[in-house]
Design brief:
33% helix; 441 residues; binds 5'-deoxyadenosine; single chain; alpha/beta; binds iron/sulfur cluster
Length: 441
């Protein structure tokens, strides 16, 4: 009899990719995917804790399974990911949701198969959040990938930066780089398998190799990967601006496979706030790096993460953020309301900002970011864009994919062109999406 799994994922691309690894582990144990918790024999929550609302979502959805679990006690419920790895979180989870069968940390992902066996053999819940054996490298790709023609590849795990607002260094541990040979062979196998776009993942890709005695650097890794010729795209995230510089820019310039789109989270435009955030750069240093990038790679687009309402942020500080948004000319940005995370420096700071003020600032910030995104969209009108077709949108009855700069383009096609590069003549641009007609080649 077939056994079914259902995975619910929260958070960043790192987590989305780790859910592909979880899926790989479950398939190796004989499970196949199903559409929802109702039919599932195991439900896995892969959680995030970067902001309070990410946690609230997960709490809500785990809680909602209580009834189902009562009617089908043999169904397994597992909770993994970043949330479980916080101080005392496993106990809190067990207390709040006694019906959860397995709690596993980000460091114990590859043990999930064994944890399922242990749980099946005992009545008591299984909790594994130890850090003795950090996931630092893997020789073989265990992922069950569902994002063709795009593929994510981890190049490093963890973070050493300790930005004062951020929980990541606490839940993901110290930086561990994968060995270049393992990365190269994984990328190679993916390209052999027909994947067309590879995104390298790390909390701070610019630190790649720092833990290997400086024998390898991130630009060096990019150069090595790009020795493989052929038509494919290479992306990476995330770059910390403090370590972003000319060697990386030169690698982007030199290697035609690397997309001219850099995600460079700035967080804030006020030097006083940046200092309190422990970001180790000033607004003008950030803008100088952007200027150098655009000088060497003139068509390079930039996206960012920006936060409002950090402790003590004044109206003047916030205006500095708005000024920077204007000057940096982001093609789009992810905008966030600061959310205190227990255990971080910023959570203990005086001068937490009232919710109404945060709300008012985020609305102004979003408007500033969107205005620029719309302008950039209308610049596409009448032009031709090259799209890597990713999927077919059933509702719209249109194929869709992204251009090198990350813009989503929709189009009609008689042939199934998923996984292929196509050219579109853009005739409509609304918000972040482009609409166009296939240009025959
Ligand atoms: N509150 C709000 N946003 C946060 N981020 C990280 N920590 C917090 C927090 N405590 C944002 C940052 C980061 C992105 C992934 O999430 O902007 O770049
Ligand atoms: Fe990703 Fe950070 Fe959320 Fe973990 S806490 S899922 S690393 S954003």
């Amino acid at each position: 009899m077939e056994k079914y799994y259902h995975i619910v994922t929260y958070g960043c691309q790192m987590n989305v990719h780790e859910s592909e690894k979880i899926a790989g582990i479950l398939r190796a144990k004989g499970y196949v995917a199903c559409d929802g918790a109702e039919e599932a024999d195991i439900v896995v929550f892969n959680t995030c804790c970067i902001r309070e609302n990410a946690e609230n979502h997960a709490y809500g959805n785990i809680g909602a399974l209580k009834k189902l679990k009562r009617s089908r006690p043999e169904m397994l419920i597992a909770v993994g990911g970043c949330m479980t790895q916080q101080e005392g979180a496993a106990d809190r989870l067990r207390k709040k949701f006694p019906f959860v069968d397995i709690v596993f940390g980000t460091h114990n992902l590859t043990a999930l198969g064994d944890l399922i066996d242990r749980k099946t053999a005992q009545k008591k819940a299984v909790v594994e959040i130890g850090r003795e054996e950090p996931v630092s490298d893997e020789d073989e790709d265990i992922s069950f990938r569902t994002s063709y023609p795009n593929a994510w590849v981890n190049i490093m795990y963890g973070c050493n930066n300790f930005c004062s607002y951020c929980i990541v260094p606490y839940v993901r541990g110290r930086e561990r780089s994968r060995r270049p040979d393992n990365i190269l062979s994984e990328v190679s196998a993916l390209l052999d398998g027909g994947y067309k776009e590879i995104t390298l993942l790390g909390q701070n890709v610019n630190s790649y190799g720092n833990d290997m005695g400086g024998a390898f650097s991130f630009p060096g890794l990019l150069d090595r990967i790009c020795e493989r010729k052929g038509k494919y795209r290479l992306r990476f995230m995330t770059s910390n601006p403090k370590d972003f510089g000319e060697p990386l820019i030169r690698s982007i310039e030199k290697n035609e496979q690397i997309c001219h789109l850099v995600h460079l989270p700035v967080q804030a435009g006020s030097d006083r706030i940046l200092k309190l955030m422990n970001r180790k750069y000033t607004a003008s240093e950030y803008l100088k790096k952007v200027e150098l990038l655009r000088k060497i790679v003139p068509d390079c687009q930039l996206t960012s993460d920006i936060m409002v309402g950090f402790p003590t942020e004044t109206e003047e500080d916030f205006r500095a953020t708005l000024d920077l948004v204007r000057e940096a000319d982001f093609s789009t940005a992810f905008t966030f309301v600061y959310s205190p995370r227990s255990g971080t420096k910023a959570a203990a700071m005086e001068g937490q900002i009232p919710e109404e003020v945060k709300k008012e600032r985020i609305m102004r910030l979003v408007e500033a970011v969107n205005a620029r995104t719309r302008e950039k969209s209308s610049a596409y009108l009448g032009k031709t864009a090259e799209i890597l077709c990713e999927d077919f949108d059933e509702k719209k009855s249109l194929y869709l994919g992204r251009d090198e700069y990350g813009r989503m383009g929709y189009f009609k096609s008689d042939a199934d062109v998923r996984g292929r590069f196509v050219k579109l003549k853009i005739n409509d641009a609304s918000g972040v999406s482009l609409y166009g007609d296939l240009v025959e080649e």
